[in-house]
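[User] Once you have settled down, look closely at the record that follows, and write a paragraph about the fold.
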Amino acid sequence: MFGFFKKDKAPPADGLTENSAQPANVGQAIGEAPAQAAEPVAKTGWRDRLRAGLAKTRAQLGGQLSGLFGRTKIDEELLEDLESTLLMADVGVDATQWLLSELRQHVKRDKLETPAQLRTALQNLLLQLIQPLEAPLQTAAHKPYIIMIAGINGAGKTTSIGKLAKHFQAQGKSVLLAAGDTFRAAAREQLMTWGERNNVTVIAQESGDPAAVVFDAVNAARARGIDIVLADTAGRLPTQLHLMEEIAKVKRVIGKADPTGPHEVLLVLDANIGQNAVAQVRAFDQSLGVTGLIVTKLDGTAKGGVIAAIARQKPTTSPLALRYIGVGEGIDDLQVFNAQAFVDALFDQAE
């Protein structure tokens, strides 16, 4: 079960405020009022939640594929219909073209004769395509390990930070939150509320320079021997160049507080935006050098195929990794990305 870490008594950095630690309700979602005592509810496993979370995408993709692969033979009409189905599931033009090209080669080379064989080949190719995205975060190399969180408004940054903090606490690590979104009061208050309920220190200020908040948070974490720093940033659109420069400044200031940091730059993407996610990856990567992604809200969209489109992107700096995916509002509904589990759930093979 989750472990909690109490604050030490070190004073806050000048001009900054810290939350007070309060007893936590372990299963409580961020921003919710404490729940009344209730009968224990059996928790479903991650693969079951993933399968349920991808239901809309599976209905869009898998439902169409069932009809296609129920045909009697492999022909050009089947391949053309398959192409349309993949595009409708937001797999993207580039990824769809790659998949169809590889499938045609498999049909010839492996002498595939039945649509069922084609389905197996497609499933294997999709796994091959997204497998390189699977790269769990390794945080042991630095202390504190500084994770900078970026993304547009509404993508789920602040909520993801709360869930990540729980995730790291479950690994026995201490966590400190930096409320670097000084423009949206609700973001700061949300982090403060979460910190109070779960004994996690939050470094925040009501207004001012977000880079200064993050700078002091890194120094506080080093002084207290904290394992993980999660630094929130204000949401912004990639077209807002002056704001993109501001978030780049936050990254530079982190480097002044710790020359090795930030150790991870996570971009949070809302799966509902489909192919627009690809454009966001490019824009934020150019400004920040994104090292990892979090894809949220997969349960609310039929556009889960966008992960295949993301896999075809070539980052400008370091290799891109899909660190976590989210399939619900629950505290445990953000988990490490596993390519095999994702493909199994997408093709309804989890049972």
Strands lie at 17-18, 145-150, 175-178, 201-204, 228-231, 264-270, 292-296, 322-326, 334-336. Residues 1-17, 19-42 have pLDDT under 50 and may be disordered.
